[in-house]
Amino acid sequence: MRKVYPYTLLDVFTDQIFGGNQLAVFTQAEGLSDEQMQKIANEMNLMETTFVLEGETEKAPRVRIFTTVDEMPFAGHPTIGTAICLAINQHCEGQVTDWELQENVGPVPVTVDGTCDVFSAELTTAVLPELSASALNREQMAALLSLPVQALVSAPKKGNCGAPFTLIELKDKTAVDNVQIQSADKSLLFADDDWPAFYFFCRDGHKLYARMICQEVNLVEDPATGSAAAALSGYLAHSMQLDSGIHHFVIEQGVSMGRPATIGLSISVAEGQQGLSGVEKVTVSGQAVVTGEGYLKL
After folding, report:
1. Which of 103, 26, 30 is nearest to 64 (CA)?
2. pLDDT for 53-104, tens place per residue?
3. Model-level pTM?
4. Distance between CA 122 and CA 218 in Å, rounded?
5. Could you say which of 76, 82, 125, 280 would form a disulfide bridge with 227 (CB–CB 3.0 to 4.6 Å)?
6. d(CA 23, CA 7)
7. H helices within the chain, ranges in order?
8. If 0-12 CB within 10 Å is exposed, 13-18 middle and 19+ buried, where does residue 46 land?
9. How many helices and strands (H and E) does the chain possess?
């Protein structure tokens, strides 16, 4: 007898179907092997698929995150989407509930708000942001992105807040939309990571416009990347020399792909501190909508 595994499909970091980033959540994944999870994620052919396993408590489940090619320690839209999916399944409409998803990066606290028509959630990262220099200088990065050097605001950086990204600040939306990565130049493409992920953005005060392109089997663009927003927190804290307090940012992504997404990012800087060294908490927030349900027979 073949076993049935139910799943839910969601669009994450959006309040409308066909926006944001797609996600499949297998809510009863007990009994699946690592190999089966990877094959299922490849079969679903989405940016990520999550598998929910029993944890110490009902609201602290084990959650594993897979792309089509490998397992991730942490990812933003799968965390937000999985928590909202679980809250919906437990009929948490009209309630605010706290969860702690046990991911490979560590415990990730998530607060889900079901008091509005569209569920929303806010995660707190399991680790604080790190920032370092990219192996590429401005000229090399400009060549890789097919942009003039003047389009780059500063030298690229490497950021990590659970997952690594190369961060590139550009002067305006036109530059962000004009990026075309020259993947033939492998020395530039893989300078920072064996699985490079480029997050390029422009900012106007606390509003940002971003895109993310990463290497899987081929180069692919992601419509909404919560883990990149988290990684960006270190760059923003450093470059803006954020003072003590909570600083809120709104990031637009996925616009050029026709899947607009809105990501909330909050950076808390400790009392009497400033900049990256003072960051004591990073949260990422957004909405999600269920788009479908089904089951897989194995």
Report:
1. 103
2. 999 999 999 999 999 999 999 999 999 999 999 999 999 999 999 999 999 9
3. 0.97
4. 31
5. 76
6. 10
7. 34-44, 76-89, 138-145, 173-178, 186-189, 226-239
8. middle
9. 6, 17
Q: Which domain holds residue 143?
A: 130-281
Query: Catalytic positions, please?
Result: 48
Are residues 232 and 195 part of one domain?
yes
The model's pLDDT over 153-173, given as tens digits with 9 standing for 90+, comes to 999 999 999 999 999 999 999
Q: Cα dist. 76→67, 156, 279, 285 in Å? A: 13, 22, 19, 9
> How is residue 66 written in tokens?
């897979």
Element (H, E) at 75: none
Tokens of 138: 């401005």
For tokens 């990684």, name the residue: 231
On whether both 143 and 275 belong to a single domain, the answer is yes
DSSP class of 277 = G
Residue 178 amino acid letter: N
